[in-house]
Amino acid sequence: MKTLICSLLLLVLAGSAMARDLSEAERTSLHGQIERFDAAFKASDFATITGTVPPKIFEAIATNSGVTADQLRGALATQMQMILASVKFLKFEMDQKNIDYEQTASGEPYVLIPTLTLMETEGKKIEARSYTLGLIDGGQWYLLRVDDGKQIGILREVYPDFADEKLPAGSMKEVE
Q: Which of these, 74, 148, 153, 72, lies nearest to 115 by C-alpha position?
């Protein structure tokens, strides 16, 4: 029994030792990625927008859909153009002042960025409040919407560290 308790204590301490804060370079890189995404969104630059999604996520979606990652990117760009034809984006904001800095159980850092989208469609204004997940893969920051159940499922499949992470739900409502 004493051996079991010591082993459990070592596991807990090892987990704590693996946790780490973001370096200044990682913070700077994160803010740069957010700025690039924001500019790309406002300019309807689909190549840059899709480039902020982790490649492993694209590969998993493409594989599950029976297409290549390039075919998926092309289809996504087409879908985005169709959406933009019927939806007018009035405001888009990723709140860099209120980023929630987190770590997975294994100590991998990630962030949750409060995100606001105000859009108009069919004469109605819709406000969407959600979070954008920022994660590091291969030394680079990637961004991913985490208010869609399917996307969260793929995230957890591709990045098992997120299997037990609580990700906040988004909301959508009509506004004046």
A: 148
